[in-house]
Design brief:
The protein is of the alpha+beta class and 315 residues long. The chain has 4 helices and 22 strands.
Length: 315
């Protein structure tokens, strides 16, 4: 039996193995991590015919250039991504949310994301990756997860196991929708900020800066004034928390965030808007809208129902 693997010709930008992440480890300083855009992660595995929590390759902005060695295998890419399949010097432009076949010697060139940040590569099989706390997800800041907690590297071999080729081509007509406002609930330190700053937070635009990665998203805009204390005793934080440091520019904590923090928290991004938030590239404009906790819970249930409905349309 031929050994199946990818050879990394170009690693791309921040390409890592991800799944749904880790649970219940905050008490030892380990965040969830996992795929940044959960919906596109789930769609990638469904299109590839995989189990729900199977490892995928997540990439930011530019993906890897991979050479496939072995028996034929199907793959799919989700997100807003430009990519090509190169077969014996013949190039074919690929479409996201559709299965394609790779054969021995073929190249897959994931060129770039389009007006977004993250894309996902799933294969009809499993990557040979190590699990840590029941997850392959890589957190490069803490160097935990598969691949020794590191991004993909040039000339690396990615071994593929348990392949299952699908002769029928799966496809989904899907458009990643945009959102006018990012909805938030009030943070635990909401009253640390002046009334004028609260109005600024919910009425003016903020810009996503280049100082953004899987750990956090730094924003820039009108200064948010703290009238109580610019620092607090470090306490637990969760994904989506919006902290305001001394410079008055908010920072949104993302999937690889630290589990404690000492900056006051003005708000928390609701779970149903998180996928769209993380796909905003530097230079994007953000406006925040306040919702109540009960609304956030309902919106998350609707998000889950919508995701199931999209999956049901895969043919």
């Amino acid at each position: 039996m031929t050994k199946n693997y990818f050879e990394v010709i170009r690693p791309g930008i921040n390409a890592t193995f991800q799944d749904l992440g880790r649970k219940n480890l905050y008490h030892i300083g380990i965040p969830f991590s996992g795929a940044m855009d959960k919906r596109n992660y789930l769609l990638a595995n469904e299109l590839a015919g995989n189990k729900v929590n199977s490892p995928v390759i997540e990439f930011a902005y530019q993906g890897p250039l991979l050479k496939f060695i072995g028996e034929k295998i199907n793959f799919t890419i989700t997100g807003d991504v430009k990519f090509k399949i190169i077969k014996k010097n013949k190039e074919e432009d690929g479409n996201c949310y559709q299965n394609y076949k790779l054969e021995d010697g073929d190249h897959l060139d994931i060129i770039s994301t389009y007006n977004s940040v993250y894309g996902y590569l799933a294969i009809s099989g499993n990557y040979d990756v190590q699990l840590q706390w029941n997850s392959c997800s890589i957190n490069t800041k803490a160097q935990i997860g598969s691949n020794n907690g590191k991004i993909l590297e040039k000339k690396q071999k990615i071994i593929i196991t348990e392949t299952h080729s699908h002769e029928s081509k799966k496809k989904l007509d899907h458009l990643n929708s945009k959102i006018e406002n990012i909805r938030v609930i009030k943070g635990t330190n909401y009253n640390y900020f002046s009334e004028n700053s609260k109005k600024i937070f919910f009425n003016e635009e903020f810009t996503v800066t280049k100082l953004t990665d899987r750990m956090g998203m730094r924003l820039k805009g009108a200064k948010i004034e703290n009238i109580v204390d610019t620092n607090i005793k470090s306490e637990g934080i969760v994904k989506g928390v919006i902290q305001v440091p001394t410079d008055g520019n908010p920072i949104v904590m993302l999937s690889d965030h630290g589990t404690i923090g000492g900056y006051p928290k003005i708000g928390v991004v609701i779970s149903s808007d998180y996928d769209k938030l993380v796909q905003l590239p530097p230079g994007s404009k953000i406006k925040f809208k306040e919702v109540e906790l009960s609304d956030a819970e309902l919106l998350f249930k609707l998000y889950q129902m919508e995701t199931k409905n999209i999956i049901s349309k895969i043919k």
